[in-house]
Structure formats: C-alpha cells, structure tokens
Amino acid sequence: MKAIWNILAIVAVLNVLAIGGLLGWLAASDRLNSERVQSIRSTLMRTVAQERADEATRELEAKQQADEAARQAKLAEPPITAGEKIAELQFRDEQRQQVMLRQQQELENLRSSLLAQLGRLEEREKKLEADRRAFDAERKRIAAMEGDKQFKLALGTLESQKPKDAKLVLAALLERDEREQVVAYLAAMEEGKRGKVMAEFVKDDSQVAAELLERLRLRGVAASGASVEPSAEASPTNVQRPANAASNAPTTQPGESTAR
Question: For 220, left (φ over 0), alpha (ψ -120 to 50), or beta?
Fold first, then answer.
C-alpha cells in the first residue's frame, strides 16, 4: 500500500513540474502574460451558453444602431418636391413600358422561331412521306418483277420435267394446301403439257383431278388430255364437272388405264 502512495506522489510531483515547466516556457517565449491570463480566466468563467447569449445581444444592439442611423440619415435629407415625385413616377413607368416592350419583342421572336421550326418540320414530314411512298412503290415494283421472274423460272423448270414428275411436284404442293399455286402453274402451262399432267392426276386420284379441272374452268382454262366421269363426290368443293368433259378423255398408251 505504501508503495502505491509513493508512486502516486511521484506522478503528482512530475505533473506539477511539467505544468510549471510549460508555464515557464510560455512566459519565456512571450506567449503568456498577465493580460492573457486574465483573458483566459474571464473566458473560462462564462459558460458556452452565456457566451452565445452575449453575442446575440451584441448583434441585436448593432442592428438597432444601424437602423437608427439610417432613419436619422433619411430625416436629414431634404423633402422631395411634387415635381420630383412626378418625375420619379414617370421614370418608373417608362422603365416598366420598356420591360414590357422587350418582353413582347422576345415573345414575337420566339413565336417567329417556333413557326419557322414548325414549317421545317412539316416540310421534312412531307419529304419523309414522299420518300416512304416512293420506297413502297419501288418495293412493290421489285417484288412484282422478281415474283414474275421467279414464277416463270419455276414454271419453266416444271414444264421441262416429265408429266409424272411434274405431277409429283404439284401433288406435294397440294399436300401443303397450296391449291391456288398449283392451279396457277397448270393455267400457265402449254395446253399439251397441261393435259399430260392432268392425265397423271386422273390415274392416281380422280377427285383431285376433278377439283383441279373445275378450278381451271373457273379461271377460264380448259385442261385438254384429262377427263373424269361425273360423280357426286368428284371434288371436296362438291362441284359437278360439265357433261361434255368426257369427250376430252386422253388417248392412253398400251398398258395404261385411266382411274375412274
């Protein structure tokens, strides 16, 4: 216990010596004098809240003094005459008119600019519409031209095949439910080749042949070289074949017979 007290006493003495040394150094280096000591003492005597209240009071007093000085200066000025008041009012009125005129001019300039932009936009829209129409027309022309060319190319390929092979191609199209395309090919074929292809259809399926024949008739094309006998179930569309169609029956080769 005695050792602890001795340690505490030594620490206290060292602190006092350190504080004394610091104060001596501040005094020797001209950083501390009696006035600064009093200032520090007076500062530490007041709380922070008291210091803020004193500062607010000083600011209020300074503002009141400034207002009073301004009022006294205004009272010291000579009174304004009626002529001066009228001149001041006229000056202010002229200023307001100038501001209004300037604002009206700015609005007019803005309106003119907007109208010009609107006109340019309308012209651009018209040009875009014209370009779009020209583009659509060109696309249609190219599509029609390419469609014609491709159709003729396919038709030429189809006509160059044997009737049996051509019939197989057209049958494949029929299985894909492209009857109008098949009728278009048959209608564009030469009469002799069309009749031979129709004869191949008659051999395999008279109902399909009757339907194609009726579709060709509705297109105004007669399929020579092919005929089927009338039947109530001749076509999925239940269309009856003309009575004189039997006279158009093809001449069969030896060993061949037409399907009925």
Answer: left
Q: Are residues 154 and 177 both part of a single domain?
A: no
Task: Per residue of the chain (260 residues), give pLDDT as tens.
Answer: 778 888 888 888 888 888 888 878 877 887 777 787 788 777 777 787 888 888 899 899 999 999 888 888 877 777 777 887 888 888 889 999 999 999 999 999 999 999 999 999 999 999 999 999 988 887 776 566 556 778 888 888 888 999 999 999 999 999 998 888 888 888 888 989 999 999 999 998 889 989 999 988 887 655 555 544 433 333 333 333 333 333 333 333 333 333 32
Both ends of the chain: CA-CA distance in Å?
136
In a shared domain, residues 109 and 128: yes
Residues 181 and 215 placed together within one structural domain of the fold: yes
- Tell me the pTM: 0.34
What span, in angstroms and rounded, lies between the C-alpha atoms of 222 and 107? 78
Three-state DSSP at 42 gives helix
